[in-house]
Amino acid sequence: MLVAGQAPGELQRSTLPAGAVAVCPASDGAADDTTYPVRKAAFDAQGRGDLATARQLMRCAVRARPGDVVALKQLVYLDLQAGEEAAAIEDVDSLRALHASEPRFEAQEGYIYFNERKYEEARAAFVRALTMPETGGGDAAVRFDARKAIGVIDAEFPSHSLEIAVDAQYLNRFDDGVVDAYARYFQRLGRRSPVRVYGGVRLLRDTASQGGTLPQIFSDNAFMAGVGLAFQPHAAHYFVSAEANMAYVFYGGRNDSSALRPDYRAVVGYYNVFRPGKDSAFERFSFQANGSFGFYSRYEHDAIAYLQPQETVDLNRGALRVSPFFQQSFAFDTKQEFFNNTVELIPGLQMALARYPGAALRAEYVRGYYLPFATTSVNPYGGSYNDFRVRLTFDKSFFLRGGSQPEEPAAGAPH
User: What is the pLDDT of residue 367?
Assistant: First the structure.
């Protein structure tokens, strides 16, 4: 259990036997504070280190007078020390109902909810901690931690996110420039849900296919817009997606196809980067696993599989990061089109600027082989090929909330 300002191993558990109920002493204090004698006995017990008795007595004070704010505030910590997180949440909720809560209590509720994976409730608690008026007693530090906690939740469990990717490359083999760019806006169906809906657009263009001499895989000049559904549990490296698009094909009439065509696709994929530990002699090495299998209606109802493992060495970690790599690329399809059944060996060099995460410049040499499937797809290029490619890539996700981050009020603002 994560507790603000306290290491997880420092909590003390109650030694009171299960089911034991303390006998509540009489509440005969002053008229304006009838439960003072009970609280005094509780504080005395707490001073002796008898936290179980202190907790029971503070609970007696609250039962006798539900508006005993002093007892409720002490109970928050005594319940946490006893491992009674549900009771601590009730205490904080009672303080809030009495307009007596403080940022530290709301933040504590946020930590409890976060550890219970109730991320929507956790975020709401941290927002309350951030936006409550100052009460003193370390509120600035609590707010700083609350803002960081909100950032963690929004980054790991975004309700809204925008993903932008661009892959612009030059292929020496065909003297061709190709761009594949897309933007997708995702909405998660609940903070804990692995399901997201999204809408997006995609542009595929190249410069050399207007004459119709390139394989179809390079001449898919189209603009697509559509909606989709994605399934990916938190922290999972696999995903499943299905989407429906309408595609405007820029040169659709060439193959007796209409310029405006529906495009349905379903894809299952996996992506992960494996790195040795920081103390390993190979800490600069990494292995990237990347693969997918998808059905594409617009490509004559073809199913295509891609597998692209890559090994990388980070030569340095300064402002300019230089990384040699070796990628293997495999493509297979059910229709056995020659251009969709290849093996490529790709040594290359990647350069990236630390201040622009997600962007990279890659220079690649490609040694490729067409797989010798018996098919009616005519291959005019022989069994193998060489290519040199220069690629500029950008891939980044932006985590959004559909509004700005909550602002902190001025000190003394009403609540």
Answer: 97
Query: 360: part of which helix (H) or strand (E)?
Result: strand 359-370
- Partner residues linked to 347 by β-bridges: 326
Cα distances from 89 to residues 73, 84, 152, 162, 174, in angstroms, run 11, 9, 21, 34, 65
Amino acid, single-letter form, for residue 342: T
Distance CA 269, CA 240 (A): 7
Which pLDDT value is given to residue 15?
A: 35
Closest CA to 344 of 379, 376, 371: 371
**Contact present, 263 and 245 (Cβ < 8 Å):** yes
Contact criterion met (CB below 8 Å) for 352 and 361: yes
Q: 195: how many CB neighbours lie within 10 A of its CB?
A: 14
Give the Å distances, CA to CA, from 350 to 159, 191, 376: 33, 36, 38
Q: What pLDDT is attached to residue 195?
A: 94
What's the Rg (C-alpha) of the chain? 31
- Give every CB contact of residue 199 below 8 A, 6+ residues apart in sequence: 184, 185, 225, 226, 227, 228
Q: Which stretches of the chain drop beneath a pLDDT of 70?
A: 1-23, 27-31, 136-137, 210-219, 252-258, 374, 401-415
Q: How far is CA 108 from CA 144, 182, 227, 409, in A?
A: 14, 41, 39, 20
Q: Are 30 and 24 in contact (CB under 8 A)?
A: no
**Beta partners for 367?**
345, 386
Please check whether residue 259 is in contact with residue 276, taking contact to mean a CB–CB distance below 8 angstroms.
no
**In what helix (H) or strand (E) does residue 240 lie, and over which residues does it extend?**
strand 238-249
How far apart are alpha carbons 264 and 303 in whole angstroms?
12
CA–CA distance, 405 with 397 (Å, rounded to integer): 17
Element spanning 106, H or E: helix 103-115
The Cβ-side half-sphere exposure at 213, using a 13 Å CA radius, reads 8
Sort residue 330 into left (φ over 0), alpha (ψ -120 to 50) or beta: beta
- Cα-based torsion angle of the residue sequence 195, 200, 206, 211 in order, rounded to the nearest 10 degrees: 110
What distance lies between CA 272 and its chain's CA centroid? 14
Q: pTM score > 0.90 for this model?
A: no
What's the confidence (pLDDT) of residue 263?
Answer: 95
Distance between start and end Cα atoms, the chain:
29
Contact indicator for 43, 55 with CB cutoff of 8 Å: no
